[in-house]
Amino acid sequence: MRHHLQQSAVLVVIVVAAAAVIVVVIVVVGVAVVAAAAAAAADVVGVVVVVVVFVVVAAAAAAAAAAAAAAAAAAVIVVVVVVVVAVVVVVVVAVVVIVVVVVAIVVVVVAVVIVVVVVVIVVVVVVVVVVVVVVVSSSHAGIKKEGTGWKFSELFH
């Protein structure tokens, strides 16, 4: 798309430059024709012919400039359309990327929450099992307090 945009810009520059060159050449030739004819022909008929030739040359220059301007306008329209399409594509891609990132963040947060919940459940279950085992074994085993700790004399009664 960028290459197409560059081609369109180059086309606009070429068309405008060509139109400018055509206008300059026609005006220079027309002025030279008028000057030569005015110097060569002192009579009114010669001057009228020279003026008519100049008007025809100027009209041709104007037509060429109009055609070049129309081509440039068409190229500018193409460039504008390409730029608008490029902007729309960039915006759509940006929105899609943002949505994907948000979804990925939500998935990660949900996964972290699930892991935390599972860890809490496992810890609670382990603590409950340990407490139950200690309580059950202390009620069945002869646990006696000795000094600073417990002595399990009969763990499995």
TrEMBL record:
Residues annotated as transmembrane: 12-38, 44-66, 73-106, 112-136
Q: Which organism is it from?
A: Polarella glacialis (Dinoflagellate)
Q: Which UniProt keywords apply?
A: Membrane, Transmembrane, Transmembrane helix
Name of this protein: Uncharacterized protein
Q: Is Transmembrane set as a keyword in this record?
A: yes
